[in-house]
Specification:
Largest sheet: 6 strands, mixed
Strand content: 5-15%
Number of helices: 19
Structural class: alpha/beta
Helix content: 40-55%
Distance between the termini: 60 Å
Length: about 425
């Protein structure tokens, strides 16, 4: 298998190496052979999110450079969950973890290749923990973990005052055992993950060394933060989920479209497969004309296509254009339109004895504070229903105006719009 000797330099340029074990040893491994590596995903929610996407795309980079991926879904570790700074996790039921494990596996499958010389392999750590006795676990794994080192871990130190259960305290042993098992069973010699997992990553490498005498590798990717230092990964509605039923492709596309100018270059490096030359040229054009938002548009299109496909990306772009008067609303898929309008803010209006008037809709949607203001907006030519200018404030909308039999798009001026669902 031919490997790309420039991989480590590319990862460094993209800012994906927040921490590493011996860098020279890792470079030698990447340059000389197809390295078997793994990255883990705990099913502590029904979907992966933006933080996981960093790991997914990094795994893809390594595979495309000739290395061999093992994707671990934590059917065992997901029963516990990695300790958090904020307090004890609520443990999910076994049935929930099984269901979420299946969902996460299905989400991961499209992102890597499961064919060819360096085909990906999916594994579940429940396979080697399910039958293991407590005594075997304590003797074979626990004896390699000095308690003083475990107490020195940052998360544990922060939790000691408020309290941490033995369950969460012991999580590092389970994750470390994953590295050991994958090394024994499949010859895996590298683990990577987020930099907040660095203690777990190095503990796994140390367990392999203590148990087998062999040296393995680890690296940690940076946590994504906004310009003000707060974490990325949230939209107005919650986490930036990859599951389209939990966050619509339209909302997903809008998130990337609206990232800060100061961060767009960093995000292009991490979340796209554009080359260094392409990204640097794009950044130069962005510095000259930031108002054109070419960098954000390229980022949004690339990430949405990777996660949701080209068709959903085009629908998201068409929806944004149509909402602001630049496209045909009727041509949008009903689900895309509904998702876009929910993001903008929607109002439900009863049919009553007939359909409402334009002035009623402007008031109900909050685009006008009163019927008088609504009428003035219409008179000034600034009110639109489904991108058609309203000329009579007191005329009821027609049944034929309802998109998909229920939706209307209201706009006041060029930038203020809202959705109305007529029931």
């Amino acid at each position: 298998m031919t490997v790309d000797p420039t991989l480590l330099d590319d990862l460094a340029w993209r800012g994906l190496l927040a921490h590493t074990t011996d860098l020279d040893a890792l470079r030698e491994a990447f340059s000389s052979r197809s390295v078997r590596y793994y990255v883990g995903f705990d099913p502590t929610a029904p979907s992966l999110h933006m933080g996981h996407l960093v790991q997914v795309m990094t795994a893809r980079r390594l595979q495309e450079a000739g290395h061999t991926p093992y994707l671990l879904v934590g059917g065992a570790t997901g029963m516990i969950g990695d300790p958090r700074d904020s307090g004890e996790r609520t443990l999910n039921t076994a049935d929930t973890v099984v269901e979420w494990t299946a969902r996460v596996r299905a989400q991961l499958e499209p992102f890597l290749s499961f064919d060819g010389d360096n085909a990906a392999t999916m594994v579940n750590n429940a396979d080697w923990t399910r039958e293991m006795s407590v005594i075997d676990f304590l003797r074979d794994v626990g004896k390699h973990f000095p308690v003083n080192r475990m107490l020195a871990r940052d998360t544990v130190k922060r939790r000691l005052e408020s309290g941490i259960s033995y369950t969460e305290f012991s999580y590092v042993l389970l994750q470390s055992m994953d590295f050991l098992e994958l090394h024994r069973r499949h010859g895996v010699e590298l683990q990577f993950g987020g930099s907040d997992q660095w203690g777990n990553l190095t503990a796994g490498a140390e367990l392999v060394r203590r148990t087998t005498g062999e040296h393995v590798h680890a690296f940690g990717t940076p946590l994504m933060t906004k310009a003000d230092g707060t974490k990325y990964g949230k939209t107005e509605g919650g986490a930036l989920w990859l599951d389209p039923t939990m966050l619509s492709p339209y909302a997903f596309h809008q998130f990337w479209l609206n990232v800060e100018d100061e961060k767009v270059g960093e995000l292009l490096r991490v979340f796209t497969f554009l080359s260094r030359e392409e990204i640097e040229a794009l950044e130069a054009r962005h510095l000259e004309k930031p108002f054109a938002r070419e960098a954000q548009k390229t980022l949004a299109d690339a990430v949405t296509t990777f996660v949701h496909g080209a068709e959903e990306t085009e629908q998201a772009k068409a929806a944004a254009a149509a909402l602001f008067g630049g496209g045909d609303l009727a041509s949008l898929a009903p689900a895309t339109l509904a998702a876009a309008l929910r993001e903008a803010g929607t109002t439900t209006v009863p049919r009553g004895d007939g359909l409402p008037t334009a002035s009623d809709l402007l008031v109900a949607s909050g685009l006008a504070r009163s019927r008088g203001e609504a009428r003035r907006t219409v008179a000034e030519g600034g009110a639109y229903v489904n991108n058609e200018r309203v000329t009579d404030a007191d005329a009821a909308v027609a049944e034929s105006d309802l998109i998909d039999g229920a939706w209307l798009v209201l706009r006041r001026g060029k930038k203020k719009f809202a959705g109305v669902e007529v029931r």
